[in-house]
Amino acid sequence: MAAAALLLLFAVSFAFSSENLVSAERSFCIDYKNNCFLKDGKPFQYISGSIHYSRVPRYYWKDRLVKMYMAGLNAVQVYVPWNFHEPVHGVYNFTGDRDLEYFLSLANQTGLLVILRPGPYICAEWEMGGLPAWLLQKPNIVLRSADTDYLEAVNNWLAILLPKIKPWLYINGGNIITVQVENEYGSYFACDYNYMRHLRTMFRFFLGEDVILFTTDGNTDKEMTCGTLDGLYATVDFGTDTNISDAFNRQRRYEPRGPLVNSEFYTGWLDHWGDRHAVVDAQKVSRVLGEMLAMGANVNMYMFEGGTNFGYWNGADHDTRFRSVITSYDYDAPLTEAGDPTEKLLAMRDVIKLFREVPSGPMPPATPKFAYGFVTLKKVGNINGVLDTISPLGPVTSKYPLMFEEMKQYYGFMLYRTTLPQDLSEPTPLISPLNGVHDRAYVSVNGVYQGLLERDAVLVMNVTGQQGDILDILVENMGRVNFGSKINDYKGLMSNLILGKDALTDWKIYPLDIDGAISSGWPHSNQKSVSSKQAALSAGPAVYMGTLQPNGLAWDTFLKLKEWTKGQVWINGVNLGRYWPARGPQQTLYVPGPLLSTSLPNNITLLELEAAPAHLRVIFMDWPQLNITAGKS
Predict the structure, then answer these.
(1) Which is the catalytic residue, given 86, 127, 182, 264?
(2) What does the pLDDT read at residue 3?
(3) Residue 264 a catalytic site member
(4) Most buried residue, 330, 485, 529, 603, by most Cβ within 10 Å?
């Protein structure tokens, strides 16, 4: 008994001394006297780059992190998108491409510290700024505020997330040196200090008193005033066109002492559909980076690799009108969308060499690419012809239209069906009187495509038909607003549609689970011949399929959809994202090699929403096209 007690006492004292040893050896704090960070008691300047694990296939995480390390970075900055991990209320996913802790472990193994930005709001040009769409089931919820419904959801999320983060804090033996609270809150209309105080309390409760918590805001007095809070270290963000001294002087007004920090130094910029591809000059980026580092500032480059908005994860903006972010998040970053080093990266590494020792050895090369060539697709059927497969639960009946959120269909597509109330021998206007189509509606009568309505752009179109004809309106969610006051971005038909003088009623509303059907093997596993009548209907929403035969390679490639109009692509059940070459600037979709099979046929599925070309061909190329703008946004 005495021996057991002695052993227990030894174990406790050893654990206590080990814990003290870790905390004594590992520390990360702010030296307010000397205006710098201290890492393990020594002055420290971080040179960091942003990478989003949610935009890069897990298979490539290590490759990208090694390239960042070899470029001379000593840290990476990482967002945690709440909706990526809790897409359905109360159902959490931290596996596979969502395995945050595995990503942190890889960064640690690579020798990179982490600046973590867990939100709960992140912006990031990501769907709804990372907030889950199911929050909108509370119709009057005030997001990013002390609204009780919102705070309850935030509390539940942080109680899941932050305990996972705590062991990864640098002071606990991990690699997370600082943690951001919220994101650019000063740009939001609410300016709710009680909300920020609540977040500060939650972060301290779960992460402890010793970790550095910080805020990031744009370089204006209004943003810094509403976004900063006592106890959260205030940092700024700005790009190459900003006067550096003015920006850091503004930070100094809110943080008179401590390190200078640019949390988002813009190496490039995002694209919307219809924009010209954004490009920021490499020499200009390198010069401004050097000037900041020479001042002793800590810099995070946003982005260092952008990656891809796979699936439906792109965000949108709504300043004067709704503008959806493209699938590629290449961002003209130092590493391309496919993770390839650029001249911009090499120029920035040359600057970094002047301030810290850069790892010796060559920069890892670009991943191999392959041009697999042409594949001819065949038509599976129009949407109404495959409705039983892609809407297995069938319709919900409602006198008036219901929104996506009311149907718990948060992403993708829904079909609204009713009948024409009268004969329309002459073209009759179908009107969205309150700009209530969010975001695009593809209109067919008896399966024949008649045109579209588009948010902020096309509010009237003409319809013909006979009384009792089936009117189908396929509505596409183009991504929720991720920035500004309009992030409460509901989707679907927001109000009645008017046909002539009649408000349309008595709807059958079909939630579409196209992703579920395709991931289960459809349509390749259940090939039915398409009627000649169906095949002749080349316009309007329809599904197409084809097969890329294996050739022993599984290399990265780029899918070009020349003369296809707009839609969505899946390869081997994985949703690559939206294509819209008719509008541009993006003309190709990035296909990561690990998605492809070297020995089995690779299944290609397209949902074309407007019009397929007669040739029905797609081509796999070994280089991307991201800079051809074909139309207005």
Answers:
(1) 264
(2) 44
(3) yes
(4) 330
Question: Cα(523)–Cα(546) distance, rounded to whole angstroms?
Answer: 10
223: containing domain: 42-354
The pLDDT of residue 356 is: 97
Query: Does residue 204 share a domain with residue 312?
Result: yes
Q: With b meaning 16 or more CB within 10 Å and e meaning fewer, what string describes 144-168?
A: bbbbeebbebbeebbeebbebbeeb
What is the tens place of the pLDDT at every residue in 352-366? Answer: 999 999 999 999 999
Q: Is the peptide bond before 139 cis (omega within 30 degrees of 0)?
A: no
Tell me, yes or no, whether 208 and 88 share the same domain. yes
Tokens matching residue 129? 């700024």
Spell out where 412-556 has E strands. Answer: 413-419, 424-431, 437-438, 440-445, 448-454, 460-465, 470-476, 492-493, 498-499, 502-503, 507-511, 542-548
Q: In this structure, are 198 and 295 located in the same domain? A: yes
In the set 127, 182, 184, 337, the catalytic residue is 184
If one counts the domains in the chain, the total is 3
Phi, psi at 167, each rounded to 5°: -65, -20
184 is an active site residue: yes
Using the structure block, give the residue that is written with the tokens 């912006």: 123
Location of structure tokens 């718990």: 408
pLDDT digits (tens, 9 = 90+) for 207-257: 999 999 999 999 999 999 999 999 999 999 999 999 999 999 999 999 999
pLDDT of residue 532: 53
